Amino acid sequence: MSEFNEFDQQGSVPERSTGSIISHAFEMYKGVFLYGLVAMIIYLIGDFVIQSISGFGSWTNYSDFKDFDEDSYRELLLNRPGVSLYYSFAGVLSILLSPLYVGLIYITNKFNTKTPIEFTDLFIGYRQNLGNILLYSLITNIILFIAAMLCLLPVVFVFPLFLLGYPILLFENANAMDALSKTFNIAKENYSVFLGTGLLSVIISIAGIVLCCVGIIFTAPFIYIAMYSLYCAYLGKPRQITYNK
What is the pTM of this model? Predict the structure, then answer.
């Protein structure tokens, strides 16, 4: 069982601007970088298992078709054996690992407030509010998938609406629907900042692809740190969570 205690604590809060939020996220990420790397390694292990089961190799397919234009690549890729099975399992994996990303947000808050960090903190999402975290991840994945099916562009404009969901689920112990409602209402009132933060965070998170794709394991977790910084900017420093093991 978890308890929520409020007390005076150290820690920084960014201004409500894209530049300040991204700068704050960079400072936080430098302190929790290794935990983000662990989260990505866990993801890659799961992805490797899925590729082995489905017989679909995402990197192999990228290498085969990297010289094709986007439309040709998409058409040939969708006809590849195992692609449907791979992406189905990959979606499930994304949902099952969402509590791990919540744990990274929790660790970021401990770093910000100068609270000692334990390795097991990375897995707090599996102990705290698990059902709502999984449900929230399922709902947002469905919404983003539908947006992607319409065209890639809608995803760019829809994704920022969900940036506060995971921190709200963690720090406020909210249910999935309340988290969806709260992040949507705050984001729509401050959409330009949320859009700018979302776009820059995604660009930074996928920047590692330029390093033979391997570098993405070092940059991908940045988006979750940005979610924390955005939460601090609009809702203040979170209440500290103490978990009774």
Answer: 0.85
